[in-house]
Amino acid sequence: MKTIRNSRLSLAVRGALLFALVPAVALAQDDTDEQIKTLDRVEVTGTRIKTSEAEGLVPVQRITREDIDRSGLTSIGDVVQALTGSGSALNTKFNSSGNFGFPPDGSGVGAGSAQADLRHLGSKRVLVLVDGVRWVNEASASGVGAATDLNTIPLAIVDRIEVLEDGASSLYGSDAIAGVVNIITRKNFDGLSLNAQVGQYGEGDGTTKSLDVAWGWNTDRANVFLGLSYTDQDVIYSRDRAQASFPVPGTGVAFGSSATPTGRFIFIDPNTNEVFDITPNNGASSPTFDPSQTGCTRTDDYHCFSTADRFNFSQFNLLLTPSERLGAFGQVRFDFSDSVSGYAKVLFNRRESTNQAAPEPWFLGPEAGTGNPLADNIFISALNPFNPFGFDLDSATNLILIGRRPVEGGARVFEQEVDTWYVGAGLEGVIDANRTLYWDVNVAFSENKAQQTNFGSYNIRNIALALGDPAACAAVAGCTPLNIFGGPGTITPAMLAWIQPVVRDRSQNELALVTANLSGSLFDLPAGSVDFAAGLEHRRLEGWYQPDALTVAGDYNGVPSLPTAGEYDVSELFFELNFPLLENTEIGQRLDFTLAGRYSDYSTGISEFTPKYGLRFQLVDELVFRASYAEGFRAPSIGELFGSASRFDAQLNDPCSTPLLDPSLAGNCATLGVPANYQQPNPQISITTGGNDQLDPESSESFSAGFIWSPSFLEDSEFAERVDFEVTYYRHDIEGAIQAIDAQTQLDLCVQTLDALYCNGITRAPTGGINGFNNRLTNLGTIETDGWDVDLFWVFPETDWGKFSAAWRNTFVGDYEAVGAAGQVQPQGPGIEVVDSAIPEWTSNFTLDWKSGNWNAAWTVRHISELREECGNAVSFPVCSNPATGTNVLDAITYNDLQLGYRFGNGEGLGLTFGVNNVFDEDPPICLSCSLNGYDASTYDIPGGRFYYLRADIKF
What we know:
This protein is mainly beta.
């Protein structure tokens, strides 16, 4: 049995940190007050033009270092996911790994990663940059990822995060459909900074420890920065929170697994043709079977299987997955002259994380639907010394289903080791001619490599041999006949040694790029200078996934998959122009028109040109209007193009399972070959997924418009020092979105319409159960969404009580609709919870900040509006709030976070900060449709989520 264990990182990190500190302290004593020369014009996210007047052209949200510290969070991913415009993305609250299988995009499940989703359009439609340079996609060790793992970037190196919530393919290329997350690293940092934090949930678990070290050294020509970051997050088990301790909250084991420690046996007695659905009585380790007892009144060692016999797999799951990260970053900048400088940077990051699931079930027989013929076509010999039935159990004739949960082998434990390397260098400079030009040339190589080690899985070929003819088993060295009939404890260590291997999967993503950029002024118009940016970029992307040899051979009892490998390169040219049309006129103070475009040429045969147009109109000093329209595209990822056939185990409700939620479908179910009394044996249905090399790129149109108002009558008044009010309308339309039709929607439409468009690929066993479900990628119709961002920032005048400032950010989603190529409306929408993701109609964050002398404090309020979900088969339970409509309401929730800090000395001494997130210990609303832990982990804090933390930082 394998259990979660401490990582090797914890054995080395203390020594590494001390080693890094010794030279840092020594060099910090020789600091000089002189700073390196910096250009007076900078590039901001959302434009490639280096201009000091770029502010306000596009809606960019800046998360400062102070904002990060105020959150109490230790992951960049968690910080970004807290934004009101963020959607549902993976984080360490998801206990997802190889037990679920592979989503259809070939990316794997990204176990242990933290991703970014903007506008609910998916993580693969968000581009992540570091210092304006594209970052490598994750390698999940279960596929070839199409999104970036933000846990690969150490928090210690971050100066700020800029989030562009607008389409930006014309500026940054593919993937920037929903927006861009640009992580700006620390530069011109002088001295030494140590930051240590420890936190724990109110239940006494989930302890998180972090230590960040930042050191910088400046001279008149050079800058050196070193950053070291270590984070260790402890596990929380699902069984330690009532809400997460059953498969579906409020339903007991009704939705538990039919694979139980005692075993479920559904078969036909070949001597009488009687159908049995039985399970051994507890404690019957050598059960006796009486074939003459055909009903449920039995005196032998069996009873009819019922809901009460189902297995509660939630007791083994994790509510918070353990994660340990160690990152190191170094950067050197040097001025060769007043007009030319160079830089070099290197990063290494190691993540070790763990997921855990219940002991791996064995589903055997034609009703199993695993897709593996060794399991679906199993033959169990009457000669097996433990077979109590006295006849063969043959999938071809009389066996329907066996479900056995081998608790003797322990839980499934998936351990990930993920290494990220990044090396970059470049030159940048200024050409002072008649007009100043800024240029830069950059090269970068990054690699993300992952290995996942799986303990607690099984070799189905060896299981089949051990259940078959004992003579055949005896002919193979090591084979031991297997006892699946006697309940827990009857599978011996010798049996486990034959059937339980250690499985190792590996994957890797690589990104190499070269860029060259030029920016400056072209010529003058009456209203000002026409500024431009232009450049070229060449990228090469390569990725592969290599499952364990056991899996490739088809002998793995868990989720099957095959190797994936692919590569492509792209060359791009881009330009951006800013035309000042008006300045200081009766109409207004300034009107600017921006035009940008990018041409992309892919080695896969794709060529695209994506333009962007923008207007910025400053009516008066205090009021600015802005609008932009952009076309974008996203090229299919390596996993989407080349992903091999694999399996995903989805939680689905079969519409033909009795009692029928819609009785009018009885005739259609009969047409599909489903018996009238069929009951779905297992809530998980295996789905075959995989890539599609015929995919076209996604195309998009994005529009945003809004204003920024800084009322002058409030500026430096008795009520305010400054007030900013921002309103932005956004709209995104995506054509040819690459995804599979929602599996539940496909199944429902198949039963409702009997249309081959939906039913092709869905097969059923003679007993009615689904034993095949093909759900491949396609260019799925359209996704359309729109909404509003409404933000208010208020800085109050300083008083004897100190200085207060408030920030109130809001996102309102007006519309969200995903439609399949044949008009199938997908279930997502505003105010809807589905497939472990939510689209709240209103998300709000309010922060009140206070500073007085050496004291500081902050109060943050996070609000998520009400959601609705389908109750599904839980409709008959009291936990379903609206059984008449078959829907459940997830009530609106408001979290409160508090923080109090004090700094000794004059800003450079020891600082102590104490904080509590979720002060009132609000539990998330119960989710009946979510796959694990009874809540949506991408939207809410965990149950029992009050979190205390203490942070100490010191600067030298």
